[in-house]
Amino acid sequence: MTNKRSNQPKSGVQPDKNKQTEQTNQNDRPASNQPMSDQQVSDQQVPDQQLSELQQALQQKDEAYRRALADYQNQRRQFEQEKARIIQFASLSMIEELLPTLDHLEMAIKHVADPAIQMVRDEFVRVLHQHGLEPIEIKPNSDFDHNLMEAIDTKPGSAGKVLEVVQTGYQLNGVVIRHAKVIVGKEK
């Protein structure tokens, strides 16, 4: 004899628990055409209010975070700019002290034709150039510019024109650290 199992529950067997749960849940939910009771409405409003409050709190925290992040980025940018400026001008005092030595080398080259002096001067200028030092280039008969030049004397000639450069001026990273000393022409 073979036992055939049937899909029907035997007498005395409990009905399926999942079906029972579905029926209970269906009884708890109002039908779509039935109005909700006052209790159900108030139960629904409480989570909506909490959700609204949480969303507002989240927005406030998000705005505060964005402001703090922007402040941090601004401070970091300002710090980097200040750091670059400090590095750029860290050697200023040393270079200012070396300029008279460069002037002496220039004078020595004008008076003595020695290739060794020229070589030392060229190397000295190369190193100073690496640190951002540039001579202020002034051509004869150029207009006098008080931002780059200092007039130490005047001579008859074209008014407001540079007649002679007595001492070279220098800029360090685009900032004048010593004005060029020039003789300017004046009308007779």
Overall 3D shape: elongated
Number of domains: 2
Classification by helices and strands: alpha+beta
Element order: H for helix, E for strand: HHHHEEEEEE
End-to-end Cα distance, whole Å, is 143 Å
CATH superfamily of the largest domain: Head domain of nucleotide exchange factor GrpE
Largest sheet: 3 strands, antiparallel
CATH topology of the largest domain: Nucleotide Exchange Factor Grpe, Chain A, domain 2
Specify the number of helices: 4
Low-confidence stretches: 21-27
| Rg measurement, Å | 45 Å
> What is the CATH architecture term of the largest domain?
Roll
Strand order of the largest sheet: 1-4-5
Strand content: 15-25%
Tell me roughly what share of residues is in helical segments: 40-55%
Key features of this structure:
single chain; Nucleotide Exchange Factor Grpe, Chain A, domain 2; three-stranded antiparallel sheet; 6 strands; 16% strand
Structure in words:
The chain is of the alpha+beta class and 188 residues long. Helix content is 53%, strand content 16%. It has four helices and six strands, in the order H-H-H-H-E-E-E-E-E-E. The protein has helices at residues 17-28, 38-89, 92-111, 115-130, and strands at 133-135, 149-156, 162-167, 170-172, 175-178, 180-186. The longest helix is centred in the middle third of the chain and has 52 residues, at 38-89. Residues 21-27 have low confidence and may be disordered.
